[in-house]
Design brief:
about 240 residues; alpha/beta; BirA Bifunctional Protein, domain 2; eight-stranded mixed beta sheet; 11 strands; about 25% strand
């Protein structure tokens, strides 16, 4: 098990680090990475087919979020560059036609354990409010004081013949900044979106320090393989 820590100097270089996790897994070595991506809005493949896509990219730039395109997941997600976390667990597969649900379940369970392990005792629930960002079947939400819930975690998966990666996003803080950026983007795409559906760990009573949440996520995703894990920094990592 390889544990990759840190962030590359540019968006493109950082994304390349994550892409290479699949190559590492395809060679037989699973890998986990939990990090804080650069400030950006990452659009999904479905977004690119919409008439408002170019305008949505312009609005992202105007709000200070460089637009990028990602290969995992459906709709746009936003990273504030400081508190929003991404995670990925890549592993080899013997048959790419099997195991998808099991990988989703393991990753979702790990994220749930991580959030519950935080000092403030969060209690994530599966599912998401209506008109959430990047809607999907493997989201996690946190309850609000008024009895509602807000989405804080999205999970997606990419599979190729020899490896698979389950990846996702965890919103730790700066809920209003993220909701504002996403509102403009989803409006241009003409995709239903409710800004109040955006939650963060901090806004729902958890810690605002992304380092604390990152550590909990990494521990949960590595799990029982911790004893055999090798920790590498992005700057010093050999990911070929």
């Amino acid at each position: 098990m390889r544990v990759i820590r840190g962030r590359a100097k540019t968006i493109d270089a950082d994304r390349d680090v994550s892409r290479r996790l699949l190559s590492s897994a395809g060679d037989g070595e699973p890998a986990v990475r939990v990090w804080t991506p650069h400030r950006q809005i990452a659009f999904g493949r479905r977004d690119r087919r919409l008439e408002g896509y170019d305008r949505a990219r312009e609005l992202a730039r105007e709000r200070g979020f460089p637009p990028v395109e990602r290969g995992v997941g459906g709709r746009a997600v936003a990273y504030d560059g400081e508190t929003t976390l991404a995670f990925a667990r890549a592993e080899p597969v013997a048959d790419f036609r099997r195991g998808t649900d099991e990988r989703y379940e393991r990753a979702t369970n790990a994220v749930e354990r991580a959030l519950r392990s935080l000092e403030d005792g969060l209690d994530p629930v599966r599912g998401e409010p209506e008109d959430s960002f990047c809607p999907g079947a493997h989201s996690l939400s946190l309850a609000t004081e008024d009895g509602g819930r807000r989405k804080v975690v999205g999970v997606a998966q990419r599979v190729r013949q020899d490896a698979a990666v389950v990846a996702g996003i965890v919103l730790v803080d700066r809920r209003e900044t993220l909701a504002d950026a996403l509102e403009g983007v989803y409006g241009a795409l003409e995709v239903p979106f409710a800004p109040e559906s955006v939650g963060t760990v901090a806004s729902e009573g958890g810690p605002s320090d992304p380092t604390v949440v990152r550590s909990a996520l990494e521990d949960a995703l590595v799990g029982d393989e911790r004893a055999d894990a090798t920790v590498e920094s992005v700057d010093g990592a050999s990911l070929e």
